[in-house]
Fold this sequence. Notes:
about 230 residues, two-stranded parallel ribbon, globular, coiled coil, DUF6781
Amino acid sequence: MDKNKSDLSENRExxxxxxxxxxxxxxxxxxxVRRITLxxxxxxxxxxxxxxxxxxxxxxxxxxxxVNQGLKSKDSLLSAVSGLDDALSWVAEASKLALEEAxxxxxxxxxxxxxxxxDDLLVLEDIYLETLKRVAKESNKLxxxxxxxxxxxxxxxxxxxxxxxTEIVNMLNYQLGENLSETVAAGSDSALKLASQLSYAAxxxxxxIAQTLESKLKTTSLKNKK
Length: 226
């Protein structure tokens, strides 16, 4: 097996196990899943493929952790996927910050460049919902039913990541609109190159966000103990 593929598989298994343990422990599941997910996502490159792999591992791990919890599994799963939803919202925010930073260095973006980036943002909610549906099919009756109910409710009432990405995309289109170039940039892979560059920058911003949230969580925990 290719070493990179082996490493990816090992990382996904480790992530699944971390999420599984967090759900089984039952302490602040939502915060724990959000923290673990953010940590997994800020390693290296933050792109759609990486997000898909992490989301899949998180939902699988949560399902495995809840499988022997009986009726409690519903609350555990809801907390876990809510933590995942929170994390994906921060992914969108990190991507926005990376694009805004790049806009300060690049006087004009080609329209297809920005479209590629905003499309990647808008697909985050689809990744989240489709993963819930797919893992539901692979799970036992109780877990599958719970995941399907969560997915249906999320589609009907909306998700945190869906609301966040829509707001960010509208804001970016407004902010960058005047600077968008009608000219098609040289090279058919121009948008992909820009997206790749931004994915590394976004991972850096996400790391900073994760550290800030972790610090706030620790401060709140210390205050509650006093």
